[in-house]
Each structure stands twice: as structure tokens, then as C-alpha cells.
Write a sequence for this structure.
């Protein structure tokens, strides 16, 4: 599945070009690692969590990793990783410059369609605490709390899940008001 965003003026989020979701390749590894390590969401008390984090080519080749990229220049605006067994959204990051522009919603919609196509009925998310509101806004439901696992993670984290309804593999509208066609138009 390859979905894209094209704004009314021919550009995607933030005045950029069309954005599409595609399968990540080993060549994306360094860019994804930079996106994780450079995320402002992991500053301060959360910095240790991603300080040495690496999204390697082996990870990309062994998992369902997808990127949202600007079609004009190939810039990666975000990515996610779906683990099938047990079903979990392992990673979801959106570049700081693309935050609040629908890229995260597009990635979640894509993930839900991939999960449905794989026959999953739910996908677990152990969320970064500040991201819980985002996950709830895109349909995840809080199901518990994942306890801290020092020294890497010294805080409890919200545990959520996306319920994936059975049926045809149709991607839900990622943002209210966007069309439900191959080309998604930002308002």
C-alpha cells in the first residue's frame, strides 16, 4: 500500500511536496536513527532512552518498517515499525518539523491497514508518556501501564491498544475532512 498526501496547492504538510508511505529499506537506517535520536520529544528526562538507539539495516529487514517521505526530495518525515508476533507498534516517530501536520495520523492509518491485512485484531502500543494523547486521538484505548525497566527506562509508560476490526483492508481516513482515496488532500 502506498498512500500519499497532496495539499490543495500541490504540496503536503508544511508546504512540502506530496508525501507517500513506502516500505523502508536498509538504506534508510541512518536517516531513521537520526530521526529517533534528534526527536525533541526525548529531551530532558527522556534523553537516555534514545541516546544510543540505533535503527539498523538488520532491524529494517526483519520487521515491517514503513516511512512517510516527501516525494520530491525523498526527505523522511516519519516512520513506524509493526511487529506481528506479538502484535505491537514498536516504533512511531515523526520529524519535529512535520509534527502537527497529519504525518503521524497517516502513518497510524497505514499501520492499521497493514495490521488488518495481516489478520491482526489488535495492536499493542507501549507509549512514550507525552505521546499518549496522540495515540488516544487516533483511536488507541488505554489498557494498562507498563512498569519502568531501569536503567534504560526509569518511568512507567501507558500501555494502549488499537483494535483492528475485521473486514476488507480499507485504510480509515487518517484526518477528518481528508478524502478516502489513493490521494489524500490536506485541508
Amino acid at each position: 500500500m502506498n498512500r500519499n498526501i497532496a495539499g490543495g496547492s500541490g504540496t503536503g504538510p508544511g508546504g512540502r511536496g506530496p508525501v507517500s508511505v513506502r516500505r523502508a529499506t536498509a538504506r534508510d537506517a541512518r536517516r531513521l536513527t537520526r530521526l529517533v535520536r534528534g526527536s525533541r520529544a526525548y529531551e530532558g528526562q527522556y534523553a537516555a532512552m534514545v541516546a544510543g538507539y540505533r535503527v539498523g539495516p538488520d532491524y529494517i529487514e526483519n520487521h515491517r518498517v514503513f516511512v512517510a517521505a516527501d516525494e520530491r526530495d525523498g526527505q523522511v518525515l516519519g516512520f513506524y515499525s509493526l511487529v506481528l508476533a506479538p502484535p505491537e507498534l514498536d516504533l512511531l516517530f515523526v520529524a519535529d518539523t512535520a509534527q502537527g501536520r497529519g504525518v503521524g495520523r497517516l502513518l497510524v492509518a497505514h499501520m492499521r491497514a497493514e495490521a488488518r491485512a495481516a489478520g491482526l485484531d489488535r495492536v499493542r502500543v507501549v507509549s512514550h508518556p507525552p505521546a499518549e494523547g496522540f495515540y488516544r486521538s487516533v483511536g488507541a484505548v488505554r489498557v494498562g501501564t507498563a512498569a519502568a525497566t531501569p536503567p534504560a527506562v526509569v518511568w512507567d509508560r501507558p500501555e494502549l491498544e488499537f483494535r483492528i476490526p475485521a473486514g476488507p483492508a480499507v485504510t480509515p481516513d487518517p484526518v477528518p475532512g481528508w478524502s478516502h482515496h489513493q490521494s489524500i488532500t490536506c485541508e
Notes: The longest strand covers residues 76-84. The longest helix spans residues 103-117. The mean pLDDT is 83. The two ends are 23 Å apart (CA to CA).
